[in-house]
Amino acid sequence: MHTDAFDYNLLTVFDAMLRERSVTRAAAQLGLTQSAMSHALNRLREFFDDPLFVKTAAGMTPTIKAEALSETVLEVMTAMRTRVLPQASFDPATMQRTFTLCMTDMGELVFLPPLMKRLRVVAPHCKLRSLQVPVPQIEALLASGDADLLLGSVQTAPESLFRQQLFMHGFVTIVSTKNRQVREALTIEQFESMPHVTVSLAGRTSPSYDAAFESQGLKRNIYLHTPHFLSIPLLMEQQPELIATVPEELANVFSRYGIVRVVKPPVALPPYALSQYWHPRFHHDPAIVWLRQLVKQTFDSYPETDVSSDARPVPRRAKSGRSKRNT
């Protein structure tokens, strides 16, 4: 780096001379020849109009001016070594950091367990924090760094965010294990007559399967809207006549606890994409790049995975020939 009058690379020469008190040893530390080191030292002397380091019995001793400059030079070089350079050589094994992820309570069940398992192995000093926030607040949180990634399926994600598709999952219907009326699949009559529980997340559009039901002419008897996925199986345990259509992976988690069971809905429902989103400000941040790679690798083996190597801003309209489904 240079200004009109000063080459900032000379600060490393000054720093080495302060610590080594020897032109020969300072040159060896910086990987310079002794001639190049002497030339750089002469440039420093010329700029500051001072010898800076003079030969004594104790070695190259700093002058009064060099002593006055030494504290500032050491502070600058320490900041470079401890704050700037580590950003270019990110080491997850030694880093201590809390990563913040925006997700729903469903996301906590689906994403967090496998992520926690991997994180504890490859980055044992890092921690996780999850947030559930309305869609209008997501961009500001990611832009400020108060959140690192958004994980989930957000049809109305801001256009400015980058998105990478992780895997595809479909929708299934769940019923209480106490419900004896429904067998392996729901009939259309059962589906339309039984009371439904649906999840309405703050700031989100209707579930993507709504259009599929409407196109088939199906009418749901919606009894309860709730913002929480996790309450559904508990409600069904108390009210066995309730049914709900939820993401398949979530239904599989619920069914492990023996409260609900998975059945086929009466019509085929389109799959949906679970993705990770991040702000362009942190697109090249080494820690966030590593975190995105960890998330991608964690869910590479999930069913119907469709993860591409590159990421693009989320397109809402066709721009420059970009495909809406490419990530």
UniProtKB/TrEMBL annotation:
Coiled coil feature spans: none
Biased composition regions of type Basic residues, renumbered to the chain: 314-327
InterPro entries the UniProt entry points to: LysR-type_TF, LysR_HTH_N, LysR_subst-bd, WH-like_DNA-bd_sf, WH_DNA-bd_sf
Location of the HTH lysR-type domain: 6-63
GO molecular function list: DNA binding; DNA-binding transcription factor activity
This protein's name: PCP degradation transcriptional activation protein
Keyword DNA-binding: yes
Family affiliation: Belongs to the LysR transcriptional regulatory family.
Highest classification ranks of the organism: Bacteria, Pseudomonadati, Pseudomonadota, Betaproteobacteria, Burkholderiales
Source species, domain of life: Bacteria
Record-linked PROSITE patterns: HTH_LYSR
Annotated SUPFAM superfamilies: Periplasmic binding protein-like II, Winged helix' DNA-binding domain
Keyword list, A-Z: DNA-binding, Transcription, Transcription regulation
UniProt region (Disordered), positions on chain: 303-327
